[in-house]
Amino acid sequence: MQQVDTGRERAANDAFTTDQGGSAAIDVAHLVKVYKTTRAVDDISFRITRGSITGLLGGNGAGKTTTIAMIMGLVLPTSGTVHVLGAKIPEQRYDVLGRMNFESPYVDMPMRLTVRQNLTIFGRLYAVKHLRERIDRLAEDLDLKDFLDRANGKLSAGQKTRVALAKALINEPDLLLLDEPTASLDPDTADWVRQHLETYRKTHNATILLASHNMLEVERLCDRVIIMKRGKIEDDDSPERIMARYNRDTLEEVFLDVARGRVREGAPEGTS
């Protein structure tokens, strides 16, 4: 597959260089997490530049969720360091919690509360100014108006996904951590959500770290892809260069190669 130097790829090049003035949104150095005898995360390092979208890929058990949990300060690393927006995590997490947020359709909000009540509670936790207006704006942008006063437990899976995204955007975060953001959405709604994320990134210069099994979504959204396997970083580059290195036309094909231990082009014998 011929490599093409796209604007997105040039942006990815910048993401792999050291940010001047230590301005990386996320800076992970030699991060390790051991659960008893299992090394869930095994000495990984990466820096993510501000204003970029990075995909974090890997099969079940690759270490993605543990890595994100350590970035958020929810899990203590066994060793290594994490800095988010210039703050050391977890020691200084309260300095930056108001500037970051997380979204996963697999984490339910209180079922008996309405969508409006849930968003109000989270908005107050983040001390969002003009909260009522912010909720109304999100309801307009994410098409929540028809069920804004419906109990969360009575929503469809797709509606819950949109509400979870609204919760993640309630404080207009500088850093957005996403886990399968378009799960359970029909193709049209999923495409609309991806467009919204792209627009949000551009208008707010926000940084997005996206864990997803939707390879087409990652190809479309991400400047850069980090592939994990068994707690280690298997590859880290722009989608275009990774696909070229494996001589594949899609990231899904690359994902299968990595999962099945196939050797990429130019890799030393005995490595994947």
Automatic annotation (TrEMBL):
GO MF, one annotated term: ATP hydrolysis activity
SUPFAM superfamilies, per database record: P-loop containing nucleoside triphosphate hydrolases
Record Pfam families: ABC_tran
Superkingdom, natural source: Bacteria
Family of this protein: Belongs to the ABC transporter superfamily.
Reported function: Involved in beta-(1-->2)glucan export. Transmembrane domains (TMD) form a pore in the inner membrane and the ATP-binding domain (NBD) is responsible for energy generation.
Protein name, UniProt field: ABC transporter ATP-binding protein NatA
Originating species: Bradyrhizobium ivorense
